[in-house]
């Protein structure tokens, strides 16, 4: 989808009245769900469970360079900042009209306006200690963000996917789970942590190998 149309689609969906949004989600939920192939044992050996995505933050590197792809109001960015004390926190979104900068001080926190894959591609390779992916939840968009982000993470760093699921309690349809698993198959990044969630909208953290397995 062209970028202008994608931006318009996202803006229209935000402005939809709740009944229209619900009907839209019901219609999309009827679509067949594509699933990824099962993972081999070596990609899950040593993975640890975390009780929540907040607890997962306590396991992430401290005082590092971090990017959050998709921030909306900045709610989770505030959690990242307070719990990991990053030296740099780069927030990326196409729209900051709902953003609240409270608790996100400059110069440690920088805002970038644009499509996540374009903005993250502008950083040097191996720049970030970890990247949190929470932008385009479609399969194609999430997988694109993952592949572009991969080169920007240092060896031993982490890529975290929010909403590692197919669907949410409000019938929102996601491609994140399949995208993350296909990424693991292609790049051979193992699971480091799986953070549980009451609604099944898990977070999954992958560790970049010391030698990345480029496709």
Which regions are unreliable across 5 or more consecutive residues at pLDDT < 50? Answer: none
Query: What is the CATH C-level name?
Result: Alpha Beta
**Spatial ordering of strands, largest sheet:** 1-7-8-6-5-2-3-4
| Biggest pleated sheet | 8 strands, mixed
End-to-end separation: 24 Å
CATH homologous superfamily assignment: Vaccinia Virus protein VP39
Portion in helices: 25-40%
What integer is the average pLDDT?
A: 89
Helix/strand structural class: alpha/beta
Percentage beta strand: 15-25%
Count of extended strands? 8
Number of helices: 7
User: What's the oligomerization state?
Assistant: single chain
The CATH level-2 architecture is identified as 3-Layer(aba) Sandwich
Return the CATH topology.
Answer: Rossmann fold
The helix-strand sequence is: HHEHEHEEHEHEHEE
Based on CA atoms alone, the radius of gyration comes out at 17 Å
Global outline:
globular
Domain module tally:
1
Describe this structure in words.
By secondary structure, the chain is of the alpha/beta class. The protein has one domain: Vaccinia Virus protein VP39 (Rossmann fold), CATH 3.40.50.150. The chain has 7 helices and 8 strands. It has helices at 3-15, 18-29, 53-59, 75-84, 116-121, 139-150, 176-187; strands spanning 48-50, 65-69, 88-93, 109-113, 128-133, 153-164, 191-195, 202-207. It has an 8-stranded mixed beta sheet, with helices on both faces. α6 links the parallel β5 and β6. α6 packs parallel to α7. The longest helix is centred in the N-terminal third of the chain and has 13 residues, at 3-15. It is globular, with a radius of gyration of 17 Å. It starts with a helix and ends in an 8-residue tail after the last strand. 34% of the residues are buried. The model has no long low-confidence stretch (mean pLDDT 89).
């Amino acid at each position: 989808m062209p970028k202008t149309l994608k931006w318009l689609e996202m803006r229209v969906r935000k402005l939809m009245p709740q009944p229209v949004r619900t009907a839209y989600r019901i219609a999309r939920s009827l679509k067949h769900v594509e699933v990824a192939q099962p993972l081999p044992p070596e990609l899950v050996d040593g993975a640890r469970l975390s009780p929540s995505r907040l607890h997962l933050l306590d396991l992430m590197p401290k005082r590092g360079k971090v990017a959050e792809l998709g921030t909306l109001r900045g709610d989770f960015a505030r959690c990242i900042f307070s719990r990991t004390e990053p030296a740099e926190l780069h927030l990326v979104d196409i729209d900051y009209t709902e953003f609240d900068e409270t608790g996100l001080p400059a110069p440690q926190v920088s805002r970038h306006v644009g499509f996540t894959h374009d903005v993250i591609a502008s950083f040097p390779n191996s720049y970030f200690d970890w990247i949190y992916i929470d932008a385009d939840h479609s399969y194609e968009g999430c997988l694109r963000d993952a592949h572009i982000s991969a080169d920007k993470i240092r060896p031993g760093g982490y890529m975290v996917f929010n909403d590692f699921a197919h669907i949410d309690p409000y019938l929102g349809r996601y491609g994140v789970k399949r995208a993350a698993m296909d990424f693991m198959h292609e790049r051979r990044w193992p699971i480091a942590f799986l953070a549980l969630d009451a609604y099944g909208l898990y977070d999954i953290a992958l560790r970049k190998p010391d030698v990345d397995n480029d496709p």
